[in-house]
Amino acid sequence: MVAGSFYIPKSNKAPLGEDAHFIYIEEEAIGVADGIGCWAKKDRRVVIRDGVIVYKSEIQKKGFNYPFQLGNGVKFDDPSVAHEIKVTVRTGDMIVMDTDGLFDNAHNIEFEKLACDGLADLHELGTFSKILARKIEEYALQNSESKSIYTPFAIDCLKVGKDGVGGKSDDITVIGV
């Protein structure tokens, strides 16, 4: 497994945002968590094969923009609500794990294009994952700052009767494998 990551904290969070991630090469394990004062489960995993998303996990949430909030206090969700997800992958598959900063700001087709364009830039396998993670993250950041595009988050807002134009400012964490 070759993996790389990139993280952009939301600009108004001091000092370094609230997302966390890990890459454990020896055990072939990766993980991300979106923090909102406690650890929240609002991340997503995607497997891309031959330029097409073949698996995309669902966001575990209670309602619109309201993820499970894992913790050990009375006002938090018990960690037992977390799901362990196992997905079979093949040699050559790309795995991307991210918090909602990416998936709220990039549509599936945009995400597939970014991943395929990243393959065209492949020169060294050891740096590819980090370069791809950075490229995807910078795209999501640009969309998050827009006030005029229809991002996935904007569309979800419209579905629940809220103002739905523009990106969603948030921490953005991407792990590419």
From TrEMBL:
Keywords carried by this UniProt record: Hydrolase, Magnesium, Manganese, Metal-binding, Protein phosphatase
The protein's Enzyme Commission number: 3.1.3.16
Needed co-factor(s): Mn(2+); Mg(2+)
Catalysed reactions, semicolon-separated: O-phospho-L-seryl-[protein] + H2O = L-seryl-[protein] + phosphate; O-phospho-L-threonyl-[protein] + H2O = L-threonyl-[protein] + phosphate
Gene3D superfamilies referenced in this protein's UniProt entry, alphabetically: PPM-type phosphatase domain (3.60.40.10)
UniProt xrefs under InterPro entries: PPM-type-like_dom_sf, PPTC7
Keyword Ribosomal protein: no
Protein name according to UniProt: Protein phosphatase
Record has NAD as a keyword: no
Listed SUPFAM superfamilies: PP2C-like
Enzyme class: hydrolase
Family: Belongs to the PP2C family.
Signal sequence, renumbered to the chain: none
